[in-house]
Fold these 2 entries.
Entry 1:
Amino acid sequence: MKVALIAHDRKKDLMIQLCTAYKAILEEHELFATGTTGTRIMEATGLEVHRFKSGPLGGDQQIGAMISENEMDVVIFLRDPLAAMPHEPDVTALIRLSDVYEIPLATNIGTAEVLLRGLDAGFVDWREFYNAEGSIDFG
Ligand SMILES: O=C(CO)COP(=O)(O)O
């Protein structure tokens, strides 16, 4: 499965803790991240992560594009609800696209743990059917 990992600055330490704790699960999957988050995860855990641009420079939009192409299966986006972001429209767009395409999305650590355990238990396997179908009518 393709898993996107994104964390705003004040949530990056939490993301590292999550990736460290769930490394055994994450290394079974293809990992993608916005720029700084990806660098931090790779340095801290040794996991292989495909890095996009930094969030404020378009990384959220790149991941959104993958979602719209049916190329992303899980999104973990530890966003900061207490800070204003210059790229707030991009953040909103990524979350919106996850909902448009029914992609499992966690926006806090509590849900992220449940989602990773569910991923490991096969609860996201239905995505393989969608992937095989190629195009689904979400309209
Ligand atoms: O801003 C972000 C998501 O909106 C995250 O970007 P970075 O991982 O580059 O810090």
Note: The mean pLDDT is 95.
Entry 2:
Amino acid sequence: MTVCYAPCPVVFDLDGTLIDSAPDIHAAVNAVLREVDVPPLTLDQVRGFIGGGVEVLWHRIIVATHLPETEQRPLMAAFMARYSRSTALTRLYPGVLEALGVLADRGHPLGLCTNKPMQPTRAVLAHFGIEDLFGTIIAGDSLPERKPHPAPLRAALAALGAEPDAPKGIFVGDSEIDAETAEAVPVPLMLFTQGYRKTPVEQLPHFAAFDHFDALPALVEQAVTQ
Ligand SMILES: O=C(O)COP(=O)(O)O
Ligand SMILES: [Mg+2]
């Protein structure tokens, strides 16, 4: 694995890492289900379905609600129309703004690599006024591949100046998918433990784990100087 010399690119996952978006996703999912007379899902259920992008989310909803597979496309479209500007229930995790500011001030190029589609990604970043902090945004519909395929993270690192063949940088994420993606690139993963992960921390490959964003800048410098 290649760790870089300071200041190296730091790329972030979005849902469950920078933002707790599950309440807005949950509300939009249930509004769509209500339209087809399907009982609501719990917040825990929907949170457990997030991470693979909108197709995976709706595939899991279809399976859980026993709806016919033919419903997936139209319901997903109805969801996207509703969710794309939904930010009212979404929160930044504590310390995110400060940590991004510290890393940016230290000269780290910052990027975003999410499986969430671009339109809601841009809407939520604009809502929190943090869009301009990121030198690149690779979303779930930016490339033919999505995480855990290494292509999206490789593209984000390359856009921030990393060498395409042996990218150096750090990935910050919350999920099984993020751990797999970081290994596939490979780059060190800083695992945020308060996100949407379902696997115990010790079973997920990671360079370091943290439960509050206050800790992140020091972990990044550790990875860089090791
Ligand atoms: O929208 C999703 O399913 C996942 O998004 P993430 O990659 O930012 O966690
Ligand atoms: Mg995530």
Note: The pocket of magnesium ion (ligand 2) is lined by residues 13, 15-17, 51, 173-175, 195-196 (CB under 6 Å).
